[in-house]
Amino acid sequence: MTNLTLDQVHSSLNFQIKHMMVSKAKGEFETFDVEFSGDLNDLPSAQVTVTIPVSSINTGNEQRDGHLRSGDFFEAEQYPNLVFRSTSIKKVSDDEFEVTGDFTIKEVTHQETFTVEYNGTSKSPMDGSTIAGFDVSGKIDREVYGLTYNAALETGGVLLGKEVKFEGNFEFVVGE
User: Which family does the entry's similarity section mention (predicted)?
Assistant: First the structure.
């Protein structure tokens, strides 16, 4: 069993969505937790839980962040966290995996699959600790979670796309 402790300072969780049919609105979750239970040498047998506080959303625009936390979107006061719990991990190649699990937003749960690249381990020159790294990417349809807010554009189309893309880069300190 490998004990991994998330290094929040060296990790990130970003998202993007189509905006006004012609560009992308981007943001990040500044706080999140990743719990790993398993063995780095046998990742398909591991269990992963990711908890993301909605309050940590940051798009670089306070007004937009407040709107995202409101009832039009996440209803952060009533539903404070997004949660992903893995149900299976499939090895695709030496360092690539597909992680499938239950993603819950506003008490609505759907199965989602994310691509994970395991970047291996390295020794920290600062303290000699072992560091493990993972890159994660994937996308969801926000509307199946009840995140349906939108506005029609005068020029045709809608303000926001349905698809939200996620990209995470996670660094862990490996313990025994």
Answer: Belongs to the UPF0312 family.
**Extents of the domains making up the chain:** 2-175
User: Do residues 75 and 55 touch, judged by C-beta distance below 8 A?
Assistant: no
Q: Each residue of 17-49: pLDDT tens digit?
A: 999 889 999 999 999 999 999 999 999 999 999
Q: Which two tokens stand for residue 70?
A: 């409101």
Phi and psi dihedrals of 165, rounded to 5? -100, 140
pLDDT tops 90 at residue 109: yes
Which helix (H) or strand (E) segment holds residue 63: the answer is helix 62-69
The dihedral through the CA atoms of 17, 84, 52, 7 has a sign that is negative
Please check whether the domain covering 2-175 is classified as CATH 2.30.30.100. no
